[in-house]
Amino acid sequence: MDQENVWDGVSGDWARYRTRRADEVNDFLAGKKGKVLDLGCGSGRNFVEGFDFYGVDFSQKLLDVAKERNYVELKKGVTDDIPYGDEFFDYVVFVRVLHCVETEVKRRKSLEEVYRVLKKGGEAVISTIGRGNQRVKNKPKEGVIPWTVGGEKFERYNYIYDKDEFEDLLKGAGFEIVSLEEGKNIVAVVRKA
């Protein structure tokens, strides 16, 4: 199933279910100021006041929900072709999205794009689902997670990284790793050197 249609289909439930900002975003942006890209922004739950926040998502229905926040700009787009110029952002928030990107090529390209749009010395927080998450602990490495809305079944793509594989992927995109922690999710703070 086309993932854009999946996310448009689950958008209402998603916006109601996922309202709390991810802890890693709070930790990452504490004490900082600047221009932030929220990549895969969805309904805007990771928006933080006091920053110039820009959002990109491929689900128009989720972007419509995100319009309720004070983003500087929201654009429809994909993670592997970010619609902004080189070195445009001080920070990137790419949280709990990468595991939903359907192919290895697109996941690698997505990280290369994050690197491209970051200013030199800029940082990103990038997190992905890990084996510590009970929902996927015994699931295959690659597959789908079913979600039913109004009797219609949707299949969200999911790729489960292990910590070493995730670290290699980040380094392969050119990032310097500032921190890398594994718990329920794998959370990395990376820097563009």
Would you write up a description of this structure?
There is one protein chain. The chain is 27% helix and 33% strand. It has 193 residues and is of the alpha/beta class. The protein has one domain (3-191): Rossmann fold (3-Layer(aba) Sandwich). The strands form two sheets. Strands 3-2-1-4-5-9-8 form a seven-stranded mixed beta sheet, sandwiched between helices. The longest helix is centred in the first third of the chain and has 15 residues, at 3-17. The model has no long low-confidence stretch (mean pLDDT 88).
Could you give a quick summary of the protein structure above?
Helix content is 27%, strand content 33%. The protein has 193 residues and is of the alpha/beta class.
Number of strands: 9
Number of structural domains: 1
Task: Write the H/E string, N to C.
Answer: HHEEHEEHEEEHEE
Provide the low-confidence segments as ranges: none
Helix content: 25-40%
> What's the CATH class, please?
Alpha Beta
Number of helices: 5
Rounded to the nearest angstrom, the radius of gyration is 16 Å
Major sheet strand order: 3-2-1-4-5-9-8
Provide mean pLDDT, rounded.
88
Report the CATH superfamily: Vaccinia Virus protein VP39
**Helices and strands: which structural class?**
alpha/beta
The CATH topology: Rossmann fold
What would you call the shape? globular
Oligomer: single chain
- Main beta sheet, described? 7 strands, mixed
Terminal-residue CA separation: 38 Å
**% residues in beta strands:** 25-35%
CATH-derived architecture: 3-Layer(aba) Sandwich
